[in-house]
Sequence to fold (407 residues):
Amino acid sequence: MAVVSSHSAVRLTLLMCVAESLSMTGFACFTTLLPVLMKAWGLNNSEAGLISGVFYTGYMLAVPVLTSLTDRVDSRRVYLFACALSAVGAAGFALFANGLWSALAFQFLIGAGLAGTYMPGLKTLTDHLEGKAQSRATAFYTAGFGFGSSVSILVSGKIGALFGWEWAFVFGTIGPVLAALLVMRTIPKGHSHGVHEGAPALLDFRPVLKHRTTRLYVLGYSLHNYELFGQRSWMVAFLVFCGTLQPEGVGLPLAAATLAAMVNLLGPVFSVTGNELALRFGRTRVIFMFMSLSGLLACGVGFTASWPWLIVFALMCVHYACMLGDSAALTSGVITVTAPERRGATMAVYSFSGFTAAFLAPLVFGVVLDLAGGNQSRIAWGLAFASIGIFGVFAPVARWIYVRRAP
Fold:
C-alpha cells in the first residue's frame, strides 16, 4: 500500500479522528445516564455494572473477527458494518429498552460496533503511514477516543436532561451513520486484494502470541484498560455522590456529566503528550511511570468524596491525565513492532485482551461498591476505586522483572 505525503497524512489523520468521534456518540450514553436509569428501572449497583460491562463483552467477542478481517478485505467495509451495529444498538435503546435484559442486548450491540470501528479505523490510518508519522497519527487517533467519549458524555447528558434519556440515544444513533458516510466517501481504500503474504489464517493468533514484546504490550494495554474503563463507567455516579456530601447551598457548580466530560477532555492532550515523551525518553520508562502514578492516585481518590468539590475534581483530573499518559505509547508501540501482514491479527489480540479487562472493571467496581456498603458509603467508593488501581501500584515491580528478563 502506498505511503501518503506529509500533507496527506495530516488530512487522513484528521478525517479518521472525526469519524472516530462520530462513531462513538452512543459510547457513553448509558454510563452518563446511569443515575437516571438506575432509578427508572430499579437497578442495583451490580446490575448497573453488568450493563456497563456487557458493552465490552460485545467488543471482545466481535473484535477478533472484525479486526482480523482487515488483513483480508478493505477495512472500510468492516467499518461500515460496525457503524450499522452501533446505530442499531443505540436506536434499540431509544425505542425499546425498559430494564436489565433489553439494556444488556442493546449495550452489547453498541460494544460490538466499536470493535469494528476503533482498531479497524486505526489500521486504515496506519496502513498508509510509516515511521514517526505513523506513531504520531496513532497518538492523535487514540487521543481521539478520549475526545469522542467526552462528546458522548457531554452531549448525551445535556440531551437527557432537557428532553429525556431516550433522545440521548437518538443522538447515539445519528453519529455512527455520519461516520460511515465520511469513511466510505473520503478515506482511500484499504487492503482489498486477498490475504497478505505471510498473514496468519483467520483467527489463528499463535504467531502473534509467540512474539514476546507483543505479549508485553498486550498485558500493559489490559491493565491500562482495566483502570481506565472502570473509572469511566462510574465517574458520573461518583461525582453525583460527591455533590450530595458538599455543604448545604454549595453542591457541584455544574452537572456531574458536564464535569465528567471536562475530565475526559484531558485525555487527548495527555495521550499525545505521553507518546511524545515516549519518543524522547524511551517507551518503557514512560509507560511504567504513568502506570505507577495513576494506580497510586486511583487507590486514594475514592476516599476523598467528602472533600471540597474543587479538590476532588482536581484529583480526578490528575488521575485521568496519568491514566491516559501511557495510552498512545502502548498502542503506537505495538504497531511499531508488528509486521504489516500481521497487523490486523495483532490488533485483534491487543483489543480483545484490553477490552476483556474493560468488561471486568465496571462489574468488579460495582460488586465492590455493593459489598463494601453501597453507593452512599465513602469507604465503599474508596475501596471500589482501589479495586481498579491496585495493579498500577505494582507497576514498579513489573518494570524490575521486565528489565531483569530483557534479552
About this structure: The CA atoms of residues 8 and 128 lie 10 Å apart. The two ends are 33 Å apart (CA to CA). The longest helix spans residues 212-245.
